[in-house]
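Review form for a predicted model. The reviewer records the input and the model, then writes brief findings.
Reviewer: anonymous (R2)
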Amino acid sequence: MAVENPKYQKMLDNLLKICKNNLPAVDEALVSKAFELSLEAHKNDIRASGEPYFTHPYEVAMIVAEEFPLDDVTIVSALLHDVVEDTEYTVDFMNREFGKEVSEIIDGVTKISGIFRGHEITKAENYRKLLLSMVKDVRVILVKFADRLHNMRTLEFVNPDKQRRIAQETLEIYAPFAHRFGLGKVKWELEDLAFKYLNREAYEELARKLKAKRKDRESYIKKFAEPIVSKLEEANLKIELSGRAKHLYSIYRKMVRRNKPFEEIYDLFAIRIILDTKNRNECYTTLGIVNQIYLPVPDRFKDYISIPKTNNYQSIHTTVVGPLGRLVEVQIRTRQMHEIAEKGVAAHWRYKENKTATDGELEAWVNWIRDIFENASRDDQKKELMESFKLNLYQDEIYVFTPKGDLRRLPVGSTPVDFAFDIHSKVGFHCIGAKIDGKIVPLDTKLHSGDQVEIISSKNQHPNKNWIKFVQTHKAKNEIRKWLNKEEQTVVDSGMEIWEKKIKKMKLSFTPDDVLKIAHSNKFDNSRQFFKAIAQSTVNIDEVLTATTQKDDKEFEKEIEFQKFAKISRNEIGGILVDGKKSGIMYTYAKCCNPIPGDPVIGYITIGEGIKIHRKTCVNLISLSSTDSSKLVSVQWPEAEGSLFVAGISVRGKDRPGILNDISHSIVTYQNTNIKSININSSDSMFEGSVTLYVNNLDHLNRMMERLKRVAGVFSVERFESN
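Model under review:
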């Protein structure tokens, strides 16, 4: 039997070429024989697309050869995977012609049909057989993935109902399966293809938005990567650097999970650095170089090299602050780590001496699922059997049931309260108790896959602030916070009304900043807490006002003194630069951190007040940037004449004759430092003073302060800052 058609000969030549390029060794005669048999067996079959059916096993073999190339046996099995099911050829025939390995893989992949009535039980039996076969040879599942992947790529040719059924099955079964086997690339493609047919409108909108932002993102990544590439080349590290592809379904899930629009979810830039080395220590060297160039975000670091994921995934993940204050995720891994991340078990299998073995942990997982099926009688309800299988595919999710048998998917660690809010917000608001499998349980009980949950509700019940401590889902947390904030606002408004009436009666007037200072002086974090305490009568408003009106004005004077200094210092250096140049853009200085020349600063775009200038260490800025980093802009202090800026320090100590002269002498004799002004007041043998001087930089200022601390009688030297 020879390939007579030039078209098919070309296809065979192409397959053999890819096999020779990707496989360590290939039996060309065996692959050619399988190609010819598959072509002959399917010669009268046509696909829904109108193409000869043979194109399907051929493309499956091509996927195996390109996506997760293992050996020629897998290629042969892929070419023949539908022959036994769809034609007269038997497993015994395959064993005689192609050997035991090929026949067992084909048998493992072959679907069982007509044994049981009903779609669900047939499907369950198919997966049972697949798993049983997989224990013997992991190549079965890889051929199955390739089969499903090609079917999904050509799904447009089947009717809409079948499209949705196959897409749902892919999303529920195959994509999580691929993740469990570490087949990252396959998982993402399966999810995106399934998403396309399950929610086409959302899919197309996201695809359009991604395409529109592509050029801008590529330009930014190039700018970000240039200094990294330069430093890595200096360190003689061979790397491949690229922007990491974003997957539509993962973006969509984040949008739904976080309840945020596309623009906020997709603001995180990402690159991947792949090192051509077997030395994993070079990954940590690369991390050090990246962190030297860009400031890392402490809470956004994961080391999956030291502690790999359960599917053998290894990589370093870190997030840094790139140009313009934008967050960039950086992944660092070796070439081998990358191959395993993309091809999972397929790549891992290539490194094993015993090719038919699986990892101990993986085998234990497979055996566990196998027991579910083997111990289940044929009389079991179809749905229960299928769901039992599905429940344990998701490592980070659980499936629980309503009293009516409806299935709900929740994160691991979820509680009855999460379940209640997942049903409906009103059910969550009035949740007073819960039953799991008919037994009453506390509301903070952890749910497990397979639990049947019933919610007990009461119109008089409202969310408890303690619920926030144990709920897991975004929806539950968000709805509880909204309710609590609404309730709190009523109390705050009441306290504010009491305050306004009181100060009006006493003919006093306070600005919002004044109220905030009063709140801070009474140990409250903010004005809301202060007003809330007034409403709840936990603070005596008369005592507060008396203490405020009788209080020494010394602190206010200090603040006024600082503001005068800050104005002089800022004017002296010439204001602020936006992106390295003066512009007509309006800006103001944030009162929360009061930046002054010499402080590292960054801008935050506001509505109505232009750009707010913050210190980079400002707690408020860190909080704002975590919610929307796109509003951060690069700002700088301009270099003053002679590269000097005005700094202020406060000095305290024991008064003595000549102390002013000693302080002045200590300053001017250090690098010819010039004093702009000096003021010292004495009281009860103690002195307190302020000095403004010209310094080169913060290091110059810090060294000067250390020098002053050594002057006899000086107790403390601090930088002049706002209270």
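Findings: The first helix runs from residue 6 to 22.
Further findings: DSSP finds 29 helices and 20 strands in the chain.
Recommendation: see findings above.
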